[in-house]
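Appendix B. Chain record.
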Amino acid sequence: MHPHELTPGMRIGLRNCLSTDCDKPIAVTPIAVRRATRVRIAAICLWALAGLSGCANSPSSAATDAPPPDYASVVANPIRVDEDRVADGRRKPVDFLRFTQVQAGMNVMDVAAGGGYTTQLLALAVGPSGSVWAQTSKVRPGLEKRLAAHPQANIHMLVRGFEDPYPADAPRLDLITFVLNYHDIAYEPMIAFE
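Structure tokens predicted for this chain:
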């Protein structure tokens, strides 16, 4: 395709390669940009999982000594608000907690914490001997309201971008969750990841 054949919604990108057949420009459509963004997001998630690969088999010492919590009791905790209990029917928190195998004493990060539904569940499950970092790219009023109404000392706010969600000098994590928020980063501008 030649540059004069491109539609207005397309941009030109030049392929940088050494082979002889790469001298033609290629069209970069908005769909291609979204796909590239998704690939970068997947790479970030894989980076996070790779960082946890050593953690999955060796959780913090406090977590290994504790029996698994009674997840139904965590969900029934009176600190949770009525809106959460309504959402429980579709979000299935007991199944979620069982799937994550979260335990007392763990260090957990909830990526894209949103209004704090999952963050609060995790904080109740890890108990006072564990910690939950609620990562969000900007301050969320719903999360602030939740924490102001029912402060939990084991929840730590992290207002950081998705490209660097957790400080390098912070404690090692036993679990990272990323729930119902893929859409929040899938359409982030490309510049955020460059």
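Further analysis of this model is presented in Appendix C.
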